[in-house]
Amino acid sequence: MTRLLSALRLEVTLQARQKFLHAGIFSGLIWLAVLLPMPHDLRPVAEPYVLVGDIAIIGFLFIGGTVFFEKQERTIGAIISTPLRFWEYLAAKLIVLSAISLIVAVVVATVVHGLDYHLVPLVIGVVLGSLLMLMVGFITALPFSSVTDWFISSVIPLVVMLTPPIVYYSGLWPNPVLYMIPTQGPMLLFGTAFDQVALAPWQALYTVLYPVVCLAVLCWAAKAMFVRYVIAGSGVL
To answer: What is the dihedral of CA 142, 162, 35, 40, to 10 degrees?
Structure first.
């Protein structure tokens, strides 16, 4: 626990130094600039799409940025020679960045809608969605030495994770096969938070359980990728 708390303090310091905290505030201001000019009856319709954008930017892009900052500063490889365990290192990133995403989402929703939304599904959706995008961003960033190469290749996982839920939610192609994408659950929760979706009991279970199962798989993949591209690459193995 002491190591995790130390890792959290360090992560907050790094996020502030690398200006990701500032970028989170800026992204919130952008979403407010998008939503506030809209008529009040259109805001609940648009808000779920804004929340998807929130988890995509802060979840996927921010953690990729932190990984490349650490690669440039040669700190990511140094982790293996410290008492800090991989899970503590990763948990610190996930906690800090998902907290930024959640704060931005709640502040934007409250400013735009007051208290006229359901907080619980919004919080669950943002946390699960952010964690999913954080894990995918972390995993996909590890093999690349250049942020440019990663950014070009990241289009594919971004499209896979974000487009199917949006397509299903918007009614363009409401095919059940799209439930295979784990971000479908958070998208449905966003709709529920603003009374755009009424979940059946099985859907309510799906929105939480399936993303959690997928997160467990992604955690395993993250450890394997870290061993291959960081630990093995450092010559320790």
So the answer is: -150
Closest CA to 188 of 179, 197, 180: 197
- Residue 199 Cα to chain centre, angstroms: 23
Give the separation between CA 213 and CA 208, rounded to whole angstroms: 9
What is the H or E stretch that residue 155 is in? Answer: helix 155-169
Task: Assess contact for 143 and 229: CB atoms under 8 A.
Answer: yes
The string of pLDDT tens digits covering residues 74-118 is 777 667 677 788 899 999 999 999 999 999 999 999 999 999 999
Residue 235 and residue 222: Cα distance in Å, rounded? 19
9: nearest Cα among 96, 105, 138: 96
Do 204 and 189 contact (CB within 8 A), yes or no?
A: no
CA Rg value for the chain: 18
d(CA 68, CA 164): 28
For residue 128, what are its two tokens? 């699960």
Amino acid (1-letter code) at residue 166: I
Q: Measured in whole angstroms, how far is the alpha carbon of residue 75 from the centre of its chain?
A: 23
